[in-house]
Description:
By secondary structure, the protein is of the alpha/beta class. It has 20 helices and eight strands.
Amino acid sequence: xxxxxxxxxxxxxxxxxxxxxxxxxxxxxxxxxxxxxxxxxxxxxxxxxxxxxxxxxxxxxxxxxxxxxxxxxxxxxxxxxxxxxxxxxxxxxxxxxxxxxxxxxxxxxxxxxxxxxxxxxxxxxxxxxxxxxxxxxxxxxxxxxxxxxxxxxxxxxxxxxxxxxxxxxxxxxxxxxxxxxxxxxxxxxxxxxxxxxxxxxxxxxxxxxxxxxxxxxxxxxxxxxxxxxxxxxxxxxxxxxxxxxxxxxxxxxxxxxxxxxxxxxxxxxxxxxxxxxxxxxxxxxxxxxxxxxxxxxxxxxxxxxxxxxxxxxxxxxxxxxxxxxxxxxxxxxxxxxxxxxxxxxxxxxxxxxxxxxxxxxxxxxxxxxxxxxxxxxxxxxxxxxxxxxxxxxxxxxxxxxxxxxxxxxxxxxxxxxxxxxxxxxxxxxxxxxxxxxxxxxxxxxxxxxxxxxxxxxxxxxxxxx
Length: 465
Protein backbone atom coordinates (compact mmCIF):
# COMPACT_ATOMS: atom_id res chain seq x y z
CA UNK A 1 0.00 0.00 0.00
CA UNK A 2 1.78 3.14 -1.18
CA UNK A 3 -0.14 5.42 1.24
CA UNK A 4 1.70 4.03 4.25
CA UNK A 5 5.02 5.74 3.62
CA UNK A 6 5.69 9.18 2.26
CA UNK A 7 8.79 7.99 0.43
CA UNK A 8 6.79 5.27 -1.32
CA UNK A 9 4.35 7.60 -3.06
CA UNK A 10 4.26 7.15 -6.82
CA UNK A 11 5.66 9.85 -9.09
CA UNK A 12 3.52 12.96 -9.19
CA UNK A 13 2.05 12.46 -5.71
CA UNK A 14 4.88 13.78 -3.57
CA UNK A 15 5.67 17.19 -2.12
CA UNK A 16 6.48 18.69 -5.52
CA UNK A 17 2.89 18.04 -6.69
CA UNK A 18 1.60 20.79 -4.40
CA UNK A 19 2.36 24.47 -4.35
CA UNK A 20 2.69 25.32 -0.67
CA UNK A 21 4.12 21.90 0.18
CA UNK A 22 4.71 21.47 3.89
CA UNK A 23 1.74 23.64 4.86
CA UNK A 24 -1.16 21.51 6.12
CA UNK A 25 -4.51 22.30 4.53
CA UNK A 26 -6.78 24.05 7.04
CA UNK A 27 -10.52 23.41 7.34
CA UNK A 28 -13.39 25.69 8.33
CA UNK A 29 -16.56 23.89 9.44
CA UNK A 30 -19.75 25.37 7.98
CA UNK A 31 -22.05 22.65 9.37
CA UNK A 32 -23.84 24.91 11.85
CA UNK A 33 -24.36 27.75 9.35
CA UNK A 34 -24.26 27.25 5.58
CA UNK A 35 -24.45 23.46 5.75
CA UNK A 36 -27.77 23.38 7.56
CA UNK A 37 -28.98 26.42 5.61
CA UNK A 38 -28.40 24.55 2.36
CA UNK A 39 -29.85 21.23 3.50
CA UNK A 40 -32.84 22.01 5.72
CA UNK A 41 -33.54 25.75 5.70
CA UNK A 42 -31.50 26.63 8.84
CA UNK A 43 -33.95 24.97 11.23
CA UNK A 44 -31.33 23.45 13.58
CA UNK A 45 -31.84 24.76 17.10
CA UNK A 46 -29.13 25.72 19.60
CA UNK A 47 -30.37 22.92 21.86
CA UNK A 48 -29.73 20.40 19.07
CA UNK A 49 -26.24 21.78 18.52
CA UNK A 50 -25.04 21.55 22.14
CA UNK A 51 -24.42 17.75 22.22
CA UNK A 52 -22.18 18.07 19.14
CA UNK A 53 -20.07 21.05 20.16
CA UNK A 54 -17.35 19.51 22.31
CA UNK A 55 -16.60 16.79 19.77
CA UNK A 56 -16.54 19.33 16.92
CA UNK A 57 -14.24 21.54 18.98
CA UNK A 58 -11.76 18.67 19.27
CA UNK A 59 -11.62 17.85 15.54
CA UNK A 60 -8.89 20.34 14.71
CA UNK A 61 -10.83 22.82 12.56
CA UNK A 62 -9.12 26.15 11.99
CA UNK A 63 -12.46 27.86 12.58
CA UNK A 64 -16.15 27.11 12.96
CA UNK A 65 -18.69 29.19 11.04
CA UNK A 66 -21.83 29.13 13.17
CA UNK A 67 -23.57 32.54 13.03
CA UNK A 68 -24.74 35.18 10.62
CA UNK A 69 -26.37 34.60 7.27
CA UNK A 70 -29.88 33.25 7.74
CA UNK A 71 -29.24 31.92 11.26
CA UNK A 72 -30.19 35.23 12.88
CA UNK A 73 -33.41 35.73 10.95
CA UNK A 74 -34.58 32.12 11.35
CA UNK A 75 -33.78 32.04 15.08
CA UNK A 76 -35.92 35.11 15.74
CA UNK A 77 -38.74 34.43 13.28
CA UNK A 78 -39.20 30.67 13.41
CA UNK A 79 -37.20 29.09 16.24
CA UNK A 80 -38.14 31.79 18.79
CA UNK A 81 -34.69 31.73 20.34
CA UNK A 82 -32.26 34.56 20.92
CA UNK A 83 -29.48 34.43 18.29
CA UNK A 84 -27.15 36.39 20.57
CA UNK A 85 -27.41 33.66 23.20
CA UNK A 86 -26.31 31.09 20.64
CA UNK A 87 -22.86 32.68 20.48
CA UNK A 88 -22.47 32.63 24.27
CA UNK A 89 -23.64 29.02 24.39
CA UNK A 90 -21.04 28.04 21.80
CA UNK A 91 -18.33 29.77 23.83
CA UNK A 92 -19.15 27.53 26.81
CA UNK A 93 -18.46 24.36 24.83
CA UNK A 94 -16.10 25.47 22.06
CA UNK A 95 -12.92 26.56 23.81
CA UNK A 96 -10.26 25.73 21.20
CA UNK A 97 -11.77 26.65 17.84
CA UNK A 98 -12.33 30.29 16.79
CA UNK A 99 -15.95 31.14 16.00
CA UNK A 100 -16.80 32.79 12.69
CA UNK A 101 -19.82 34.70 11.48
CA UNK A 102 -20.92 35.71 7.98
CA UNK A 103 -21.87 39.38 7.73
CA UNK A 104 -23.47 40.90 4.62
CA UNK A 105 -21.57 44.18 4.74
CA UNK A 106 -23.95 47.12 5.15
CA UNK A 107 -26.85 44.62 5.14
CA UNK A 108 -25.53 42.87 8.28
CA UNK A 109 -27.78 39.81 8.73
CA UNK A 110 -30.78 41.48 7.09
CA UNK A 111 -31.94 42.22 3.60
CA UNK A 112 -31.32 45.94 3.12
CA UNK A 113 -28.69 48.54 3.90
CA UNK A 114 -28.61 49.73 7.52
CA UNK A 115 -27.15 53.01 8.83
CA UNK A 116 -23.47 53.12 9.77
CA UNK A 117 -24.17 53.45 13.50
CA UNK A 118 -26.18 50.20 13.48
CA UNK A 119 -23.42 48.43 11.57
CA UNK A 120 -20.82 49.63 14.06
CA UNK A 121 -22.90 48.67 17.09
CA UNK A 122 -23.76 45.25 15.62
CA UNK A 123 -20.09 44.36 15.07
CA UNK A 124 -19.21 45.62 18.54
CA UNK A 125 -21.87 43.49 20.24
CA UNK A 126 -21.12 40.39 18.13
CA UNK A 127 -17.44 40.67 19.05
CA UNK A 128 -18.33 41.07 22.74
CA UNK A 129 -20.60 38.00 22.57
CA UNK A 130 -17.73 35.86 21.24
CA UNK A 131 -17.32 36.09 17.47
CA UNK A 132 -13.61 35.82 16.63
CA UNK A 133 -13.66 36.05 12.81
CA UNK A 134 -15.95 38.22 10.69
CA UNK A 135 -16.39 37.00 7.11
CA UNK A 136 -17.75 40.06 5.29
CA UNK A 137 -19.09 40.32 1.77
CA UNK A 138 -21.33 42.54 -0.31
CA UNK A 139 -23.94 40.97 -2.57
CA UNK A 140 -22.98 43.25 -5.47
CA UNK A 141 -19.23 43.17 -4.71
CA UNK A 142 -19.51 46.93 -4.11
CA UNK A 143 -16.74 47.40 -1.56
CA UNK A 144 -18.18 50.72 -0.41
CA UNK A 145 -20.75 48.58 1.38
CA UNK A 146 -17.97 46.85 3.35
CA UNK A 147 -16.02 49.90 4.54
CA UNK A 148 -17.90 50.55 7.80
CA UNK A 149 -18.05 46.88 8.80
CA UNK A 150 -14.35 46.38 8.00
CA UNK A 151 -13.40 49.33 10.18
CA UNK A 152 -15.64 48.15 13.01
CA UNK A 153 -14.03 44.70 13.03
CA UNK A 154 -10.58 46.26 13.16
CA UNK A 155 -11.69 48.50 16.03
CA UNK A 156 -12.96 45.43 17.92
CA UNK A 157 -9.57 43.72 17.46
CA UNK A 158 -11.04 40.71 15.66
CA UNK A 159 -9.92 38.88 12.53
CA UNK A 160 -11.28 40.26 9.27
CA UNK A 161 -11.97 37.89 6.37
CA UNK A 162 -12.77 39.48 3.02
CA UNK A 163 -14.77 37.72 0.33
CA UNK A 164 -14.73 37.37 -3.44
CA UNK A 165 -18.18 36.51 -4.82
CA UNK A 166 -17.44 34.02 -7.58
CA UNK A 167 -19.97 33.84 -10.38
CA UNK A 168 -20.10 33.67 -14.15
CA UNK A 169 -21.16 36.66 -16.22
CA UNK A 170 -19.86 38.98 -18.95
CA UNK A 171 -18.64 41.26 -16.15
CA UNK A 172 -16.70 38.76 -14.01
CA UNK A 173 -13.18 37.67 -14.95
CA UNK A 174 -10.08 36.34 -13.20
CA UNK A 175 -8.54 39.79 -13.60
CA UNK A 176 -11.57 41.44 -11.98
CA UNK A 177 -11.52 39.01 -9.04
CA UNK A 178 -7.81 39.68 -8.49
CA UNK A 179 -8.39 43.43 -8.55
CA UNK A 180 -11.18 42.97 -6.02
CA UNK A 181 -8.81 40.99 -3.79
CA UNK A 182 -6.09 43.63 -3.98
CA UNK A 183 -8.55 46.32 -2.98
CA UNK A 184 -9.73 44.33 0.02
CA UNK A 185 -6.16 43.73 1.16
CA UNK A 186 -5.61 47.50 0.98
CA UNK A 187 -8.70 47.84 3.18
CA UNK A 188 -7.09 45.63 5.83
CA UNK A 189 -8.43 42.09 5.45
CA UNK A 190 -6.42 39.38 7.24
CA UNK A 191 -7.44 36.60 4.85
CA UNK A 192 -9.55 36.18 1.70
CA UNK A 193 -12.46 33.88 1.03
CA UNK A 194 -13.55 32.79 -2.46
CA UNK A 195 -17.31 32.20 -2.33
CA UNK A 196 -18.66 29.82 -4.98
CA UNK A 197 -22.16 30.03 -3.54
CA UNK A 198 -23.90 28.20 -6.39
CA UNK A 199 -21.44 25.38 -7.12
CA UNK A 200 -20.31 26.78 -10.46
CA UNK A 201 -16.54 26.57 -10.21
CA UNK A 202 -14.81 24.24 -12.65
CA UNK A 203 -11.56 22.57 -11.50
CA UNK A 204 -9.42 24.47 -14.00
CA UNK A 205 -10.87 27.78 -12.88
CA UNK A 206 -10.16 26.90 -9.24
CA UNK A 207 -6.50 26.30 -10.07
CA UNK A 208 -6.25 29.46 -12.18
CA UNK A 209 -8.02 31.73 -9.70
CA UNK A 210 -6.17 30.49 -6.61
CA UNK A 211 -2.85 30.70 -8.47
CA UNK A 212 -3.60 34.27 -9.56
CA UNK A 213 -4.62 35.32 -6.06
CA UNK A 214 -1.58 33.68 -4.42
CA UNK A 215 0.64 35.59 -6.86
CA UNK A 216 -1.14 38.90 -6.27
CA UNK A 217 -1.70 39.08 -2.48
CA UNK A 218 0.11 37.80 0.59
CA UNK A 219 -2.86 36.97 2.85
CA UNK A 220 -4.16 33.38 3.20
CA UNK A 221 -6.72 32.24 0.61
CA UNK A 222 -9.71 30.07 1.52
CA UNK A 223 -12.15 28.43 -0.91
CA UNK A 224 -15.86 27.82 -0.36
CA UNK A 225 -17.78 25.70 -2.88
CA UNK A 226 -21.19 24.05 -2.91
CA UNK A 227 -21.58 20.60 -4.44
CA UNK A 228 -24.65 21.54 -6.49
CA UNK A 229 -22.89 21.39 -9.86
CA UNK A 230 -20.92 18.22 -9.13
CA UNK A 231 -17.48 19.82 -9.41
CA UNK A 232 -16.73 21.03 -5.88
CA UNK A 233 -14.43 18.20 -4.81
CA UNK A 234 -12.44 18.44 -8.04
CA UNK A 235 -12.26 22.20 -7.62
CA UNK A 236 -10.99 21.76 -4.06
CA UNK A 237 -8.27 19.36 -5.19
CA UNK A 238 -7.08 21.72 -7.89
CA UNK A 239 -7.15 24.58 -5.38
CA UNK A 240 -4.97 22.49 -3.04
CA UNK A 241 -2.54 21.89 -5.88
CA UNK A 242 -2.45 25.65 -6.48
CA UNK A 243 -1.60 26.34 -2.83
CA UNK A 244 -4.95 27.28 -1.28
CA UNK A 245 -4.61 27.68 2.48
CA UNK A 246 -8.04 26.59 3.67
CA UNK A 247 -11.29 24.95 2.59
CA UNK A 248 -14.88 25.25 3.83
CA UNK A 249 -16.29 21.80 4.59
CA UNK A 250 -19.05 19.85 6.30
CA UNK A 251 -18.80 16.50 8.02
CA UNK A 252 -19.97 13.73 5.69
CA UNK A 253 -23.49 13.47 7.14
CA UNK A 254 -24.02 17.18 6.36
CA UNK A 255 -22.26 17.25 3.00
CA UNK A 256 -22.94 17.03 -0.74
CA UNK A 257 -26.15 17.91 -2.57
CA UNK A 258 -26.57 21.66 -2.24
CA UNK A 259 -24.17 21.72 0.71
CA UNK A 260 -20.36 21.37 0.76
CA UNK A 261 -17.66 18.72 0.31
CA UNK A 262 -17.04 16.30 3.19
CA UNK A 263 -14.00 16.96 5.36
CA UNK A 264 -13.28 13.24 5.77
CA UNK A 265 -12.69 12.89 2.03
CA UNK A 266 -9.89 15.44 2.08
CA UNK A 267 -8.36 14.23 5.31
CA UNK A 268 -8.07 10.80 3.68
CA UNK A 269 -6.94 12.07 0.26
CA UNK A 270 -4.20 14.22 1.80
CA UNK A 271 -2.92 11.62 4.24
CA UNK A 272 0.84 11.14 3.95
CA UNK A 273 1.17 13.95 1.42
CA UNK A 274 3.10 17.14 1.93
CA UNK A 275 -0.15 18.93 2.87
CA UNK A 276 -1.48 16.32 5.31
CA UNK A 277 -3.80 18.07 7.83
CA UNK A 278 -2.95 15.46 10.49
CA UNK A 279 -6.57 14.98 11.57
CA UNK A 280 -7.86 11.60 12.78
CA UNK A 281 -10.77 10.54 10.58
CA UNK A 282 -12.00 7.97 13.12
CA UNK A 283 -13.37 10.67 15.42
CA UNK A 284 -16.18 11.57 12.99
CA UNK A 285 -18.37 8.49 13.57
CA UNK A 286 -20.21 9.80 16.67
CA UNK A 287 -20.33 13.31 15.19
CA UNK A 288 -22.00 12.03 12.04
CA UNK A 289 -24.45 9.93 14.05
CA UNK A 290 -25.41 13.07 15.96
CA UNK A 291 -25.97 15.17 12.85
CA UNK A 292 -28.00 12.40 11.18
CA UNK A 293 -30.32 12.34 14.20
CA UNK A 294 -30.78 16.11 13.93
CA UNK A 295 -31.57 15.89 10.21
CA UNK A 296 -34.39 13.46 10.96
CA UNK A 297 -35.94 16.11 13.22
CA UNK A 298 -36.20 18.47 10.25
CA UNK A 299 -37.18 16.09 7.46
CA UNK A 300 -40.06 18.37 6.48
CA UNK A 301 -37.53 21.06 5.51
CA UNK A 302 -35.06 18.70 3.86
CA UNK A 303 -34.07 19.67 0.33
CA UNK A 304 -35.35 17.37 -2.38
CA UNK A 305 -32.45 18.44 -4.61
CA UNK A 306 -30.13 15.46 -4.25
CA UNK A 307 -27.29 14.40 -6.47
CA UNK A 308 -26.08 16.91 -9.06
CA UNK A 309 -27.94 19.79 -10.68
CA UNK A 310 -25.98 20.87 -13.75
CA UNK A 311 -28.70 23.46 -14.29
CA UNK A 312 -26.95 25.57 -11.65
CA UNK A 313 -24.43 26.51 -14.34
CA UNK A 314 -27.25 28.47 -15.95
CA UNK A 315 -29.42 29.73 -13.07
CA UNK A 316 -26.47 30.18 -10.62
CA UNK A 317 -28.79 29.90 -7.60
CA UNK A 318 -26.96 29.26 -4.30
CA UNK A 319 -27.62 26.15 -2.23
CA UNK A 320 -29.31 28.04 0.60
CA UNK A 321 -31.60 29.87 -1.81
CA UNK A 322 -32.55 26.62 -3.57
CA UNK A 323 -33.83 25.11 -0.33
CA UNK A 324 -35.79 28.30 0.44
CA UNK A 325 -37.37 28.39 -3.04
CA UNK A 326 -38.34 24.75 -2.60
CA UNK A 327 -39.93 25.49 0.76
CA UNK A 328 -41.86 28.50 -0.55
CA UNK A 329 -43.18 26.70 -3.62
CA UNK A 330 -44.13 23.69 -1.50
CA UNK A 331 -46.17 26.01 0.74
CA UNK A 332 -48.09 27.15 -2.36
CA UNK A 333 -48.48 23.58 -3.68
CA UNK A 334 -46.33 24.51 -6.66
CA UNK A 335 -43.20 22.43 -6.13
CA UNK A 336 -43.46 21.16 -9.70
CA UNK A 337 -42.82 24.67 -11.04
CA UNK A 338 -39.32 24.99 -9.58
CA UNK A 339 -37.61 24.38 -12.98
CA UNK A 340 -39.62 27.26 -14.49
CA UNK A 341 -38.66 29.54 -11.61
CA UNK A 342 -34.98 28.68 -11.99
CA UNK A 343 -35.10 29.39 -15.72
CA UNK A 344 -36.73 32.76 -15.03
CA UNK A 345 -34.07 33.55 -12.39
CA UNK A 346 -31.52 33.51 -15.22
CA UNK A 347 -33.46 36.12 -17.16
CA UNK A 348 -34.17 38.36 -14.16
CA UNK A 349 -30.52 38.26 -13.09
CA UNK A 350 -29.45 39.49 -16.53
CA UNK A 351 -31.99 42.33 -16.29
CA UNK A 352 -30.52 43.25 -12.88
CA UNK A 353 -27.02 43.69 -14.31
CA UNK A 354 -25.68 40.24 -13.40
CA UNK A 355 -25.33 40.55 -9.61
CA UNK A 356 -23.81 37.58 -7.80
CA UNK A 357 -26.76 35.68 -6.35
CA UNK A 358 -25.74 36.19 -2.76
CA UNK A 359 -28.07 37.52 -0.06
CA UNK A 360 -30.00 39.78 -0.51
CA UNK A 361 -29.81 40.01 -4.31
CA UNK A 362 -30.58 36.28 -4.53
CA UNK A 363 -33.81 36.67 -2.55
CA UNK A 364 -34.92 39.66 -4.63
CA UNK A 365 -34.18 37.89 -7.89
CA UNK A 366 -35.80 34.65 -6.74
CA UNK A 367 -38.95 36.36 -5.48
CA UNK A 368 -39.32 38.35 -8.70
CA UNK A 369 -38.82 35.25 -10.84
CA UNK A 370 -41.35 33.32 -8.76
CA UNK A 371 -43.95 36.06 -9.23
CA UNK A 372 -43.38 36.01 -12.99
CA UNK A 373 -43.96 32.26 -13.19
CA UNK A 374 -47.02 32.23 -10.92
CA UNK A 375 -48.67 35.29 -12.47
CA UNK A 376 -47.64 34.68 -16.05
CA UNK A 377 -46.64 38.34 -16.32
CA UNK A 378 -43.09 39.69 -16.40
CA UNK A 379 -42.69 42.76 -14.16
CA UNK A 380 -46.46 43.17 -13.77
CA UNK A 381 -45.62 43.66 -10.10
CA UNK A 382 -42.21 44.78 -8.82
CA UNK A 383 -41.34 44.60 -5.14
CA UNK A 384 -40.26 47.61 -3.09
CA UNK A 385 -36.86 45.92 -2.67
CA UNK A 386 -36.39 45.63 -6.41
CA UNK A 387 -37.37 49.25 -6.90
CA UNK A 388 -34.83 50.25 -4.25
CA UNK A 389 -32.26 48.08 -6.03
CA UNK A 390 -32.86 50.07 -9.21
CA UNK A 391 -32.52 53.31 -7.22
CA UNK A 392 -29.07 52.22 -6.00
CA UNK A 393 -30.10 51.52 -2.40
CA UNK A 394 -28.08 48.29 -2.46
CA UNK A 395 -25.04 49.64 -4.33
CA UNK A 396 -23.78 49.56 -7.88
CA UNK A 397 -24.45 46.35 -9.88
CA UNK A 398 -21.58 44.76 -11.84
CA UNK A 399 -23.27 45.52 -15.17
CA UNK A 400 -25.98 47.90 -16.37
CA UNK A 401 -29.59 47.30 -15.39
CA UNK A 402 -31.79 46.70 -18.44
CA UNK A 403 -33.59 49.82 -19.61
CA UNK A 404 -36.95 48.04 -19.80
CA UNK A 405 -36.70 46.78 -16.22
CA UNK A 406 -35.47 50.16 -14.95
CA UNK A 407 -38.37 51.96 -16.67
CA UNK A 408 -40.99 49.59 -15.24
CA UNK A 409 -39.47 49.78 -11.76
CA UNK A 410 -38.81 53.50 -11.24
CA UNK A 411 -40.04 55.30 -14.34
CA UNK A 412 -37.94 58.30 -15.33
CA UNK A 413 -35.81 58.41 -12.16
CA UNK A 414 -32.07 58.59 -12.85
CA UNK A 415 -30.18 56.98 -9.96
CA UNK A 416 -26.59 58.05 -9.34
CA UNK A 417 -25.66 54.98 -7.22
CA UNK A 418 -24.00 56.67 -4.22
CA UNK A 419 -22.87 54.60 -1.24
CA UNK A 420 -26.21 53.33 0.12
CA UNK A 421 -25.51 54.21 3.77
CA UNK A 422 -24.89 57.83 2.79
CA UNK A 423 -28.62 58.06 2.03
CA UNK A 424 -29.59 56.88 5.53
CA UNK A 425 -29.97 58.71 8.83
CA UNK A 426 -28.45 57.19 12.03
CA UNK A 427 -30.78 54.48 13.29
CA UNK A 428 -29.75 53.03 16.64
CA UNK A 429 -31.27 55.65 18.94
CA UNK A 430 -34.41 55.77 16.81
CA UNK A 431 -34.79 51.98 17.09
CA UNK A 432 -34.17 52.14 20.84
CA UNK A 433 -36.94 54.72 21.24
CA UNK A 434 -39.35 52.80 19.03
CA UNK A 435 -38.71 49.47 20.76
CA UNK A 436 -39.23 51.10 24.15
CA UNK A 437 -39.68 48.70 27.07
CA UNK A 438 -39.52 45.70 24.75
CA UNK A 439 -35.73 46.06 24.41
CA UNK A 440 -33.82 45.56 27.64
CA UNK A 441 -30.31 45.32 26.14
CA UNK A 442 -28.41 46.83 23.24
CA UNK A 443 -28.62 43.41 21.58
CA UNK A 444 -32.42 43.62 21.80
CA UNK A 445 -32.34 47.07 20.19
CA UNK A 446 -30.28 45.67 17.31
CA UNK A 447 -32.66 42.75 16.85
CA UNK A 448 -35.52 45.25 16.69
CA UNK A 449 -33.65 47.56 14.31
CA UNK A 450 -32.92 44.69 11.93
CA UNK A 451 -36.31 42.98 11.96
CA UNK A 452 -38.96 45.33 13.39
CA UNK A 453 -41.77 43.46 11.65
CA UNK A 454 -41.45 40.43 13.94
CA UNK A 455 -38.95 41.42 16.65
CA UNK A 456 -41.71 42.86 18.84
CA UNK A 457 -43.45 39.50 19.10
CA UNK A 458 -40.12 37.78 19.73
CA UNK A 459 -39.06 40.17 22.51
CA UNK A 460 -42.43 39.82 24.23
CA UNK A 461 -41.96 36.05 24.17
CA UNK A 462 -38.34 36.35 25.37
CA UNK A 463 -39.30 38.39 28.42
CA UNK A 464 -42.68 36.70 29.05
CA UNK A 465 -44.53 39.98 28.57
